Amino acid sequence: MCSSRKILWSLLLLSVVEVGLGVASIVLGAVGISWVRGKHKPQQGDASPVWSGLCFLVCGMCGVLCARKRTGLIMILFSACCICGLIGGILNFQFVRALNKRPDSMHSIHLAAMTLACLGISSCTLSTWLTCRLASSEQQRMFLEREHSLHHSHEMTEKEILDNSSNGLPQISYNGHTATSPC
Questions:
Q1: What is the spatial distance between Cα 136 and Cα 131, in angstroms, rounded to a whole number?
Q2: Residue 163's pLDDT band (cuts 50, 70, 90)
Q3: What does R_g of the chain's alpha carbons equal in angstroms?
Q4: Rounded CA gap, 162 and 2, in Å?
């Protein structure tokens, strides 16, 4: 089983990759839109790389935040962003694939956009899986801490019972000296 530290570093690395994919997809989408405007009227899928890139960018930034602060709420936020990035990547792929069927399409830009979408979909899927592993690891860590704390409090209770049972009277401590309390 991977340690929590390995999961965190993997998640951080994958999140930085997602940020890079998001920026690259946004730039590629902007280049595609500017190129299309000169040739013909923009269509529905021309801006889809920008939108999926934005989803990947937000997902990557949430992943970096999740790797730094491992709270349950941030893990849920990151998982939701990964799902949105996954949906955005799938829609981007479908829109660009439909655009690629046009006779005057820009095959190289569309191929690059579909490649970035596939990489983004893969990274979102892996990030979601890593987040589940991290949440499981954190849950196990918290359980062990609570168990240790309960065990420690149980030992303290046993010690208190032994102190009280030494002479039958409750012991009271004043400035480090023990005295019996009157009943």
A1: 9
A2: low
A3: 28
A4: 43
Q: Are 22 and 120 in contact (CB under 8 A)?
A: yes
Alpha helix (H) ranges present in the chain? 4-39, 48-68, 72-99, 107-165
* 3: Cα separation from own chain's centroid: 16
The answer to whether 62 touches 17, Cβ cutoff 8 Å, is no
Angle at 16 between CA 33 and CA 7, to 5 degrees: 145
Helix axes 48-68, 72-99, angle to 10 degrees: 160
DSSP 47: G
pLDDT tens sequence across 20-67: 999 999 999 998 888 887 777 777 778 889 999 999 999 999 999 988
How far is residue 120's CA from residue 52's CA, in Å, rounded to a whole number? 9
* 107-143 burial code (b ≥16 CB/10 A, e <16): eebbebbbebbebbbebbebbbebbebbbebbeeeee
pLDDT at residue 161 tops 60: no
- Residue 89 makes CB contacts below 8 A (sequence gap 6+) with 52, 55, 56, 117, 118, 120, 121, 124
Question: Are 170 and 180 in contact, with CB atoms under 8 Å apart?
Answer: yes
> What is the overall mean pLDDT for the chain?
81
Whether this prediction's pTM lies above 0.90 is answered by: no
Q: Which residue has the tokens 């899928």?
A: 45
